[in-house]
Give the backbone structure.
Amino acid sequence: MRTTILVTGGAGFLGSHLCDRLLSEGNEVICTDNLFTGSKDNIRHLLNNELFEFIRHDVTFPLYLEVDQIYNLACPASPVHYQYDPVQTTKTSVHGAINMLGLVKRTGARIFQASTSEVYGDPEVHPQPESYWGRVNPIGIRSCYDEGKRCAETLFFDYHRQHEIEIKVARIFNTYGPRMNPEDGRVVSNFIVQALKNEPITIYGDGSQTRSFCYVDDLIEGFVRLMNSDPEITGPVNLGNPGEFTMLELANLVIEITGSKSQITYMDLPQDDPRQRQPDISYAKSALGWEPSIQLKDGLTQTVEYFDNLLKEGV
Ligand code: NAD
Ligand code: UDP
Ligand code: UDP
């Protein structure tokens, strides 16, 4: 019997890589997506695979399917996109979680939630372990995403306690790689596209804020290990690369890799922009035997190649 796996948000950046990985292992994959920030281009190479099925569907509406596992990834992920329609962002996290948890309650499937390091907000504890409860502004412009994801975590743990379903909650830290949406305003895609076009590289603030960047292949390995771990491992589990860089360091690295003539330009820092972020991945190491292996420079080189091709195709 094949395992049938539902990936919500499967036409997005992470979702499409996950579909590739699950199909390569011989699973049957149902990908649902409303194509808000995702694209059929990300899954076009899978459309003729008989083990793959795409359904255009908004996760805030009920969905009745028979599956063994669900990876719940549907949600706009970049500040530009999740702030475009903030009410819909909260609905996607909260109603989406309720619908997928209802499906799990009915079928007995196992469910993975793509949570986020944003649940830690602008953290006072550094690096962030899973035991840290976070410092999130409930009424700011990032709140639709942060609080939506926090509420989804609450729902996962309440369905787990109340209905004894199997849950796997991952807190994902900044991840990058091919198939990032060039329009989503995230720092890695912005800097690479700007560098390739020899346009000014836009640093928000003074560039001293930090992030930790994980290459997509490392992250997907963590997803699959978590999903297939023992039932008592519910998470939350931090998944990310502990290598921490300032945005100025990132800009200089991108300039070096691309050989760009771009200059750096400084712009206003957005509201509630976290000062620093680095995952404590001790738990992922001990529980899943997982840690990332791809260095930032190597991952960026792959990503630059992807965007270079995209620009040459005129996309
Ligand atoms: P993405 O925007 O490329 O993918 C999200 C996908 O969800 C898109 O294909 C989009 O069309 C779809 N979607 C959005 N709203 C939907 C809805 N209401 N119904 C159905 N589909 C919907 O972003 P991504 O980086 O691939 O993120 C995937 C998941 O991982 C998200 O839940 C995000 O919050 C989480 N995450 C990502 C990162 C990261 O650095 N990439 C970090 C933390 C958490
Ligand atoms: N749901 C769904 N697919 C299913 C089962 C349920 O989309 O296969 C939705 C259903 O519409 C409901 C939600 O999941 O709104 C929560 O389901 P649950 O059984 O927990 O709640 P109830 O139906 O009892 O309110
Ligand atoms: N950032 C930047 N220039 C850009 C885009 C983003 O300096 O063109 C900064 C942003 O202010 C933040 C960091 O880079 O401090 C990471 O931003 P991103 O939107 O990628 O992720 P998040 O803030 O959600 O971690």
